[in-house]
Amino acid sequence: MQGPILLGTVFLAAGGAALACALFTVQGNYKPKINREFLAEAGSLVIWNFGRALFGAGADVGVRSIGAHFSAVGYTLSFFFLLRCLLLLTGRQDLFHKSYIRVLLYLPFLVLLCGFVALPLFHPSGITWFYSRWGWIEISKPGLWDFFSVAITVCSWLFPAGCCCDGSEAPL
Q1: Are 85 and 41 in contact (CB under 8 A)?
Q2: Cα separation, 46 vs 5, whole angstroms
């Protein structure tokens, strides 16, 4: 029983450290948009780590299920805010006003949220739970949502790289 509690404590400490680093970086100056986005990114990491802590240290299926859903919300939010932060860091704030960028930012977030949070609430058959000495393990069958998640991750790495195609850097 020590392993799941230790794992939950580590996840909660990681979330607290992310929030503390974001608050230290912002230092009360919420006027610049990048500071607000960075604080929102840290908040999504806190939600993600809180969900992982609940998932790992949960005593029964209900608590683990709630933790898995919290974790999925934090996971999808973290990619959403990461893309927004990267656009701001590259100096391309003008792209926020274009409709195709809004689709690229909001549609993957909504699809991942639907695939990892809403659909499992109504159809949880693809998940098997196992208990190990380190806590509960969720094993899911690979499906369309898993491949979509990998595609979103790869696009989130490649998309910001093409924002400054002329070789210029964003002014800091």
Answers
A1: yes
A2: 18
Tell me, what DSSP letter sits at residue 161?
A: G
Q: How many CA atoms lie within 13 A of 23 on its CB side?
A: 8
Amino acid at 7: L
Cα separation, 40 vs 80, whole angstroms: 10
Bridge partner residues of 138 (DSSP): 129
DSSP structural state of residue 60? S
Amino acid at 89: L
- Local confidence band at 126 (pLDDT 50, 70, 90 cut-offs): low
- Helix orientation angle between 61-89 and 33-57, rounded to the nearest 10 degrees: 160
Angle between helices 99-113 and 144-158 (to 10 degrees): 140
Tell me the pLDDT tens digit for each residue of 22-33: 888 888 787 888
Element spanning 93, H or E: none
Total length of the chain: 172
How far apart CA 148 and CA 151 sit, in angstroms, is 5
